[in-house]
Inverse folding.
């Protein structure tokens, strides 16, 4: 019988992070961020590590990227009790509610909303795209958490472009932060590149990798920095 490492149940997570740290060191990997600020580099470390913990995939060290203003903006929004809107109920379920409640943050996912379903059918759009239109009308700072639907990211970009060209819509509110990590093949890479080029604060997983579990892991990593 092969030997295995005995770890107490309440120590499994901390042991996992020890292994991640050991493997990062053994691979000569230094955590990267687009920000040059040392404080931002330190603060981004927990995000990378939690995503690796969630996926067991060290590729995220290279493909998870931040706009220069992403981390300061994220902590500012989360500390002030913003709204988080997800594109899937899976991402919504994966976000730690105890931590979120400590910060007074509201969570929404409109994907199962009857009016969103009907509007998406009438307009020939995905529910994710219509959900982003709904979120853009909230009169509060919003963090968009996208782990599945590239059409959600495209919708955000299109709405922002319309806003810029029209000189400002009264019913449109600029995204506070976009966490764009959809997984897949159709328009996934293009949608992420659009987000990185549009000028809004973002955390994005470049390429095809991502998912609702990654999206939730990023939110949890940020929230834990403020609540633990």
């Amino acid at each position: 019988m092969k030997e295995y490492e005995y770890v107490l149940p309440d120590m499994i997570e901390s042991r996992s992070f020890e292994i991640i740290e050991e493997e990062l060191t053994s691979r000569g990997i230094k955590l990267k961020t687009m920000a040059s600020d040392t404080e931002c580099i330190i603060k981004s470390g927990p995000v990378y590590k939690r995503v690796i913990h969630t996926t067991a995939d060290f590729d995220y060290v290279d493909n998870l990227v931040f706009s220069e203003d992403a981390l300061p903006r994220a902590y500012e929004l989360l500390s002030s009790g913003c709204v988080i809107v997800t594109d899937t109920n899976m991402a919504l379920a994966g976000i730690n509610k105890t931590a979120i409640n400590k910060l007074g943050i509201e969570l929404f996912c409109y994907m199962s909303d009857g009016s969103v379903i009907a509007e998406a059918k009438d307009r020939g759009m995905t529910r994710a795209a219509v959900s982003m239109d709904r979120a853009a009308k909230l009169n509060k700072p919003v963090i968009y958490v996208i782990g599945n639907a590239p059409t959600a990211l495209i919708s955000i970009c299109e709405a922002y472009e319309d806003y810029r060209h029209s000189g400002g819509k009264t019913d449109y509110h600029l995204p506070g932060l976009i966490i764009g990590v959809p997984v897949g093949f159709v328009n996934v890479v293009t949608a992420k590149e659009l987000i990185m080029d549009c000028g809004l604060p973002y955390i994005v997983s470049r390429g095809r990798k991502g998912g609702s579990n990654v999206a939730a892991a990023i939110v949890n990593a940020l929230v834990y920095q403020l609540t633990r």
Notes: The CA atoms of residues 31 and 170 lie 41 Å apart.
